[in-house]
From TrEMBL:
Transmembrane segments: none annotated. This is MoxR family ATPase. It comes from Caulobacter hibisci. Pfam families: AAA_3, AAA_lid_2. It comes from the Bacteria.
Length: 325
């Protein structure tokens, strides 16, 4: 690292991540890819969108993650009748004192689970935009700061399902990652039934023995370390080439923005630290290209007609763009 000293050694970041993974594994079977992206987002200071059919442990995963990292946790169940004030709060009139007082909404926390975010209309979805981008909210013209660690883990059902509203492109762009959860393998499904098949009532991480394993000071130190992970000129050039390739592809109507490239670089640094490395390699970028870019691209009409998927197009681009050796 030259003359710079890391806040903590990158091996400690990797060990911290391993403890978190192990603890989440007490409640959630499989979904290793989602856990890794949640960890990467935590250390990169980004938000995560989890998409998958009902019953694939999206909510339990987010709850378990919040418990292991000991962050102040909030949850909103998005419904068609939810109003913006139900998310950020409102100034309510107190008849006893004849004054207005602020009632803070559930957004005033450190880790917010936005459950089934696409079941509420865009007006309410947009209430989260300012919070996600600026980490503060405005109520009746007055700005109220949120925690500098404020992170949104949102879940959504596949957009084809009944009663869902597409997320606005501006909001999608606020998510560092979009991860698509799939059904578990046969062996994992068997393990899920063994672990969960005898339980009745609400399943929560505490009942599975999930405990906090990461103190806030350790997370802050890890985040500082991630910011110092080396990104060589060759890897920067590779990220630029990948992002620009999305704009030049005839399969894509709208490509990724420069902000997407910057976010991919931050995420690659975090992934390197999770792997106990103080430098980014091209494989970090390749592994994170799909979750970082898939929600920022709009396919061309021709690709849509041909039935092509965003992930197929992205895979082709990653294969074509030359990576540094």
């Amino acid at each position: 690292m030259g003359s710079r000293s890391l806040s903590v050694d990158v091996s400690e970041v990797g060990a911290l991540a391993a403890r978190i993974r192990s603890e989440i594994g007490k409640a959630v079977v499989g979904q290793d890819g989602a856990v890794d992206l949640l960890l990467t987002a935590l250390f990169a200071g980004g938000h995560v969108l989890l998409e998958g059919p009902p019953g694939t442990a999206k909510t339990l995963l987010a709850q378990s993650f919040a418990r292991t990292v000991a962050l102040d946790y909030g949850r909103i169940q998005f419904t068609p009748d939810l109003m913006p004030g139900d998310v950020i709060g409102a100034n309510l009139f107190n008849f006893q004192t004849s004054t207005f007082s602020l009632t803070r909404g559930p957004v005033f926390c450190e880790l917010l689970l936005a459950d089934e975010i696409n079941r509420t209309p865009p007006k309410t979805q947009a209430a989260l935009l300012e919070a996600m981008q600026e980490r503060h909210v405005t109520i009746d013209g007055k700005s109220h700061p949120l925690s500098p660690r404020f992170t949104v883990v949102a879940t959504q059902n596949p957009i084809e399902q009944q009663g869902t509203y597409p997320l606005p492109e501006a909001q999608l762009d606020r998510f560092l990652f979009k991860h698509v959860l799939d059904y578990p393998s046969a062996a994992q499904e068997r393990a899920i039934i063994v672990a969960h098949g005898s339980r009745t009532g609400q399943m929560d991480p505490k009942s599975f023995g999930v405990e906090p394993v990461a103190a806030r000071a350790a997370i802050d130190a890890a985040i500082e370390t991630v910011a110092q992970v080396r990104l060589t000129d060759e890897v920067v050039g590779y990220i630029v080439d990948l992002v620009r390739a999305t704009r030049e592809s005839t399969d894509i109507e709208t490509g990724a923005s420069p902000r997407a490239g910057a976010m991919l670089a931050v995420a690659a640094r975090a992934r390197a630290a999770l792997d106990s490395r103080d430098y980014v390699i091209p494989d970090d970028v390749k592994a994170l290209a799909a979750p970082t870019l898939r929600h920022r691209l709009i396919l061309s009409a021709a690709s849509e007609i041909e039935g092509r998927k965003v992930d197929q197009v992205l895979t082709g681009l990653v294969e074509r763009v030359a990576a540094p050796r």
